[in-house]
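A favour, since you know our structure tokens better than I do. Just paste the record in under my message, thanks.
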Amino acid sequence: MNKPIKVSDIDQKRLQARELKVCPVVIRSGELGAEILMFRHPLAGLQLVKGTVEKSDRDTFIAAKRELKEESGIKQLIALRVLATGNQDSLGKAGILLVA
């Protein structure tokens, strides 16, 4: 699957409960190989950028871009694609995992 999920197609009860999550992952080529953007949260430790799909997001790509900008300041991306999706059973608390 390489298409965003439209927010209008998402179960509104899950959207209202703020159960749907996105996880935009930034990968770049570094001197020693691939580098992944992570940050150290003061309480939770090392983390990837992630966040909740909002009603105002048109689709999961928009949600992923918004979360990336909010949490890292990154505004422009070279490529964006879905690497994985899942449901609450397969991904724990995340309703949808979007890796971009």
User: Anything to note?
Assistant: The CA atoms of residues 7 and 56 lie 8 Å apart. The radius of gyration is 14 Å. DSSP finds three helices and six strands in the chain.
